[in-house]
Design brief:
The complex is a heterodimer. Chain A is mostly helical. Helices cover about 75% and strands about 0% of the residues of chain A. Chain B is globular and about 65 Å long. Classes of the chains: A mainly alpha, B alpha/beta. The interface of A and B includes residues 10, 122 and 134 of A.
C-alpha cells in the first residue's frame, strides 16, 4: 500500500514539474493565440543564461537571476520587434511556423554564447529524498519536487490575479479574443505581446531552473516540452488551472502505467501512455478539461 | 638599393621554392572526424572530439605529420544525428589525395548505416567500444573494427566484478541484477549476454528500459526501490546518465553497487549529483587523468601554442582520454599500413591492412607516452576486437576525479564467443556474405 502511495505522490510531484513548463505555453496561447513551439527552448535558454552568468561572473545567484530576467525581457522585445510585429493577423499556422524558427535561433544563440557542456546549477535549492518521509513512513519524495509544487502554487496565484484583476491582464485577454477588436479600442498589441512573452520567459526561467537543478543544465532540457504537450491537451491550452490539474493527472497516470502495466509489456511506456491518456480526453472533451468551449453561430 | 633588396629577395625565394614545393607536395592523409559538438549529446561528444583532434594536431606540430605525410584533418558535425552522420561520411570520403583513410563514427546509429558502404568504398570503420558487437568477427566484417572491447565484454566484465565483490561467481546465485538501459539499439546490446550469464550464474535479471532522452526516471527508480536489487547496471548516454546517478543517490541506492558501462562514466555524468555521486562505478578500458607523458607533451606543444581543440583544464577527462586513445590506435594502424605497403602513400584499404596487423604492446604504449594507460591490443584477420579486458573506475566526489579500483577483469569468452559467432553468421546469411577464410 505504501508503494502505491509513494507512486501516486511521485506522480503528482513529477506532474507539477510538467505543469511548470506547460504554464509558459498556456500564457502565450491565452494572450495571443500562438502555440509557441519555442517554449521548451526558452526554458533551456533561460536556464543556460542563468547558469552561464553564475559560472562566468561568480555573481550571487539572485543578481544572476535578475539579469536573466532582463535577458528574457530583451528576448520578448526582440521577438515582438523582429517576428510578431510583421505577422499581425496572419494565420495561426504562420505564427506557429515562426516559433519553430525561433526555437532553432534561440538554441543556436545559446550554444554560441554559453557552449554545449553540462552546467551544474546549484543555487542551494533542496535536493535529494525527504529524510523525514523516508525514515518515518518509508515513502520516497524528492525535496526539489515539493519545492517545485510550492513555486507552482505561488506562480498560479500570481498569474490568476494578474489575468483577472489587472488592467494589463484584461487587455491580454482582449488581444487573445480578437487582435483587430483589441486594436480598435486602443490596446497596444506590441506592448501586450512584449509583456506576455516576458512573463512566459520568466515562467520558462523558473521551470528551467528547477529542471536544470535536477539534471544539470544541458541541451536536452529543450525536450521537456514533449512532457508538457499531453498536459496541455488534457488541461486545455487556455487554462492556467488546467495546466496544473492536467500535469497532476498526466504525472500520476504515467507513473501508475509504467510501474503496474509496464512490466507486462516490456516497459518504457510512460511517454506514449501520457499521450494516449491525453488523446482519450481529447476524444471526449476536445477543448481539454478547463479549456474554453468554442460555440459559433451558423 | 631597393632593386638590390628585390634581387636578393627573389634569389632567396628561388632557393626556398623547391623546399616549399616539396612541402606542398607531401602526400596528404585525409582523416575525417565525425563529431557532435552541438545538440543534446554534445557534453559527451566534445571531450572525445577534442582528444581525437589534439593527437593529430600534436603529430602535425611535432613531426610534420605521420612518417613524412602531412595530415588533412577534417571535422564534420553530426549532432549525433544518423542522417547528418551519413551526409558527413558521403561528403568527406572522397576528399584529399588519399581520400578518407578511416572513420570513427562515434554513434551506433551512424555505424549501422555506414557498415555496408565501408566495404564498397574500401574505407575501414573503427567503432572503438561501440557499434555492432558481432563486428568483432573479422571473417564476416572485414572493414569494421571494434577493439579493445565490445558491449558484451563490458557486460560480462561488470558481472565478473560483481562476482568478485560478492566473493565468487557462485555467490551470484539468487542475487538480483537490474539493468537500467536506454531504450534503443545501443541500450539493448548487453541484454542477450546478460541473459546468458544469468542462466550460467543463477542470478535474476531485471530489465528497466528508459525512453529517450531520460530526463524523467522516477518510475524506474521507484521500481528499483521496491525490488532492491543487489546490483544495478546502466547502459545510458546523455542526460539519462546524470538523472540516473542523481535518482540513485536520492533513493539511497548504494553507489558502490551501481555500475555504468564505459559510456556512462565520465565527469559530466556525476558532477550534477554532487556529493551524492560519490562511490559510483563505471566500466572503462583506459586510465583517467592527465599525468601521462603524452598529455604533458600535448599541453606543451599544442595548448601552449594556443592550438588546443578545447579547454586546457579538461585535458585528461575520461572522454578526452577516450578520444586520445582512439587517435593513438588509429595512427598506429596508419603506420602499420605504411610499413606493409612500404610507402607513406596509402589509402583506406592499406589502413585496413594496418588495423588487421595491429600489435600495440605495453612497450609501444610507453614509447608513445602512455605507460600503463590501457591494455595492449593485437588484431588479426579473424579477431577485430581484443582483448575485451575491463577496468572498473570509481568516482571520488571530494577529489573530483575518477580512480581505477579494479583492473584485468576478463570477460566470459565461453559465453561471448558463441554469441558473436551466431550473430555474425545471421548477418552474413541476411546479406549474402561469404565469410573470409582467415586460415
Amino acid at each position: 500500500m505504501s508503494f502505491l502511495v509513494e507512486t501516486i505522490l511521485s506522480g503528482l510531484m513529477a506532474g507539477v514539474m510538467y505543469s511548470l513548463v506547460a504554464l509558459g505555453f498556456v500564457l502565450i496561447f491565452k494572450a495571443s493565440g500562438i502555440f509557441n513551439f519555442a517554449q521548451g527552448v526558452m526554458c533551456l535558454f533561460a536556464a543556460l543564461t542563468f547558469a552561464g552568468i553564475i559560472e562566468k561572473t561568480s555573481l550571487p545567484w539572485p543578481i544572476a537571476f535578475m539579469l536573466t530576467v532582463g535577458v528574457m525581457v530583451a528576448v520578448a522585445w526582440a521577438v515582438e520587434r523582429f517576428v510578431l510585429r510583421h505577422l499581425v493577423n496572419q494565420e495561426p499556422i504562420i505564427l506557429f511556423m515562426a516559433t519553430i524558427g525561433l526555437a532553432y535561433v534561440l538554441e543556436g544563440i545559446g550554444d554560441i554564447v554559453w557552449g554545449s557542456d553540462v552546467k551544474v546549477l546549484d543555487i542551494g535549492l533542496p535536493s535529494g529524498a525527504s529524510d523525514f518521509m523516508l525514515d518515518q513512513f518509508n515513502i520516497y519524495i524528492e525535496k526539489l519536487e515539493v519545492f517545485a509544487a510550492l513555486i507552482a502554487a505561488v506562480l498560479v496565484g500570481f498569474l490568476a490575479i494578474f489575468f483577472q484583476k489587472t488592467r494589463i491582464g484584461r487587455a491580454l485577454r482582449a488581444v487573445a479574443d480578437d487582435h483587430q477588436a483589441a486594436l480598435s479600442v486602443g490596446i497596444s498589441l506590441q506592448t501586450i505581446w512584449v509583456i506576455v512573452w516576458s512573463v512566459a520567459g520568466f515562467v520558462a526561467l523558473v521551470a528551467g531552473t528547477l529542471w536544470g537543478t535536477k539534471s544539470g543544465v544541458q541541451f536536452s532540457l529543450s525536450l521537456i516540452a514533449l512532457k508538457a504537450l499531453p498536459v496541455l491537451i488534457l488541461g486545455g491550452f487556455t487554462s492556467i488551472p488546467g495546466a496544473i490539474v492536467g500535469g497532476l493527472i498526466i504525472g500520476v497516470g504515467e507513473k501508475l502505467a509504467e510501474i503496474y502495466v509496464g512490466p507486462m509489456v516490456g516497459g518504457a511506456i510512460e511517454n506514449w501512455f501520457a499521450y494516449m491518456l491525453a488523446l482519450a480526453f481529447l476524444l471526449v472533451r476536445p477543448q481539454g478539461l478547463f479549456g474554453e468551449r468554442i460555440i459559433e453561430r451558423v | 638599393m631597393k632593386l638590390k633588396h628585390l634581387t636578393a629577395g627573389l634569389a632567396a625565394l628561388a632557393i626556398a621554392s623547391p623546399i616549399a614545393v616539396t612541402t606542398a607536395q607531401a602526400y596528404e592523409l585525409t582523416i575525417p572526424s565525425l563529431v557532435y559538438r552541438t545538440g543534446p549529446y554534445a557534453p559527451g561528444g566534445i571531450p572525445f572530439a577534442n582528444g581525437y583532434a589534439d593527437y593529430f594536431k600534436l603529430l602535425q606540430e611535432r613531426d610534420g605529420g605521420i612518417n613524412g605525410a602531412s595530415i588533412n584533418f577534417i571535422e564534420c558535425e553530426t549532432a549525433y544525428n544518423t542522417q547528418q552522420g551519413v551526409e558527413c561520411y558521403e561528403n568527406t570520403k572522397g576528399q584529399g589525395e588519399s581520400k578518407a583513410l578511416v572513420y570513427q563514427p562515434l554513434s551506433t546509429g551512424i555505424t549501422y548505416q555506414i557498415i555496408p558502404k565501408a566495404a564498397v568504398d574500401e574505407i575501414p570503420i573503427f567503432t572503438m567500444g561501440y557499434g555492432r558487437t558481432s563486428a568483432a568477427n573479422g571473417k564476416v566484417f572485414p572493414w569494421i573494427f571494434n577493439f579493445p572491447g565490445t558491449y558484451w565484454d563490458a557486460a560480462s566484465g561488470m558481472v565478473n566484478y560483481a562476482a568478485a565483490i560478492e566473493g565468487s561467481a557462485a555467490d551470484l546465485k539468487d542475487k538480483t541484477i537490474a539493468l537500467v538501459y536506454h531504450n534503443s539499439a545501443y541500450g539493448k546490446e548487453p541484454i542477450r549476454t546478460l541473459e546468458e550469464l544469468s542462466k550460467k550464474h543463477g542470478f535474476k535479471l531485471e530489465l528497466l528500459p528508459v525512453d529517450h532522452p531520460g530526463q524523467e526516471q522516477k518510475a524506474t527508480w521507484l521500481q528499483i526501490r521496491r525490488m532492491n536489487p543487489d546490483w544495478v547496471f546502466m547502459w545510458g548516454w546523455g542526460v539519462m546518465n546524470q538523472v540516473a546517478v542523481k535518482e540513485a543517490s536520492s533513493v539511497r541506492y548504494p553507489m558502490d553497487r551501481f555500475i555504468g558501462n564505459w559510456w556512462a562514466g565520465s565527469e559530466h555524468d556525476v558532477l550534477p549529483a554532487g556529493e551524492g555521486a560519490n562511490g559510483y562505478l563505471s566500466a572503462t578500458f583506459h586510465a583517467p587523468g592527465a599525468e601521462f607523458p603524452l598529455h604533458q607533451e600535448i599541453l606543451e606543444k599544442v595548448y601552449d601554442a594556443g592550438k588546443g581543440a578545447g579547454d586546457r583544464e579538461r585535458v585528461g577527462e575520461v572522454l578526452y582520454n577516450r578520444g586520445l586513445i582512439a587517435a593513438v590506435w588509429t595512427v598506429e594502424a596508419i603506420r602499420k599500413g605504411m610499413e606493409i605497403k612500404g610507402s607513406n602513400e596509402i589509402v583506406g584499404k592499406d589502413v585496413r591492412e594496418g588495423l588487421e596487423a595491429l600489435d600495440v604492446t605495453e612497450e609501444r604504449l610507453a614509447e608513445l607516452g602512455l605507460p600503463n594507460f590501457t591494455y595492449p591490443v593485437k588484431m588479426s584477420c579473424a579477431v577485430h576486437s581484443d582483448p575485451g579486458t575491463v577496468l572498473i573506475q570509481q568516482w571520488d566526489a571530494a577529489g573530483g576525479d575518477w580512480k581505477v579500483i579494479a583492473s584485468g577483469i576478463e570477460p566470459d569468452r565461453d559465453i561471448i564467443a558463441p554469441l558473436i559467432e551466431a550473430d555474425s553468421a545471421a548477418y552474413a546469411a541476411e546479406n549474402n556474405i561469404t565469410p573470409r577464410d582467415c586460415n
